Amino acid sequence: MSPRKTAREAPPLRAAVGAWEEAPIAPAGVDTEKPSAARVYDWYLGGTHHWAVDREFGRRVEKLWPLIRPISRQNRAFMNRVVSAAMDAGIRQFVDLGSGVPTAGNVHEIVRERLPAGERASVVYVDYEPVAAAHSRLILEREGASSWAGLVERDIRRPEEIFTDDLTRELIDWSRPVCLLMITVMHFIGPSDEPDELMATYRSRLAPGSWLALTHGTCRDDAPPDRAAEVRRFIEAYQDTSNPAWLRSAEELLPWFGGWPLLPPGMTSLPDWRPETPPTPIDTETRPFAWCAVARRPGL
Ligand SMILES: C[S@@+](CC[C@H](N)C(=O)[O-])C[C@H]1O[C@@H](n2cnc3c(N)ncnc32)[C@H](O)[C@@H]1O
């Protein structure tokens, strides 16, 4: 892992060739000739931080699993609704584990939009991919958000390093409620990384009134066989890479909330958690492949 740099130590900018829509500004030293998983994901989301090589790679992955793009967008929409609801509930601190490139409606954007005048909020993004970290710092710096939002370049499997990181200590007061987001990241944590213990460590850090939000890939029994085969092929293709992924059932995920009450409507499919728009045909296709839920630590 490369050494952490705070947003204030962000690398100098260099303008990439072409118009902003065609080629965004890249942080110095970041390779835009090779695809980056974080930028490919940004392309699925409709963000602006991807290059031709990322889009080409993304299209190849889409051939393997055509639902990846709608599910990515539903994940992002769920996260947006959770952050909005947490803001409405008075939470002002957000920690986003496995944050990727923070474009296309990310946490700090929602927080900034909904923050009442005169109030303060803070956001810590956590990602271990140097490319995601570099783009994140650049975006936060460019948007003038570095004083209240930052990127901690750490591995979520080592929570103590995140808790004791200088930037986390500067921005997050764990004695007050925090909204901890784990969106499309825990499926990268395999059994050998002891996810149950990891979740317990994160829960133990959260003060009463905190929220814990999770989305996770699955393959439910009601999935059409051809779609189920696609997702299983997709997961298998990643097993021998540096980013193997795991699908989990609701029964495996529910204990991760440690018995804290789930906010209504409980554990459900992405389009069904407090939807703000009418259902669409793609919702029927994606429902069997992801779970989401938000728990609130009781006691406040
Ligand atoms: C699929 S993206 C999700 C991005 C964002 N949470 C969202 O839903 O839009 C997963 C991100 O998690 C990061 N990630 C995976 N494993 C991680 C780990 N052990 N520690 C930190 N970040 C991790 C990857 O680098 C990637 O940027």
UniProtKB/TrEMBL annotation:
<protein>
    <recommendedName>
        <fullName>Methyltransferase</fullName>
    </recommendedName>
</protein>
<dbReference type="Pfam" id="PF04672">
    <property type="entry name" value="Methyltransf_19"/>
</dbReference>
<dbReference type="InterPro" id="IPR029063">
    <property type="entry name" value="SAM-dependent_MTases_sf"/>
</dbReference>
<dbReference type="InterPro" id="IPR006764">
    <property type="entry name" value="SAM_dep_MeTrfase_SAV2177_type"/>
</dbReference>
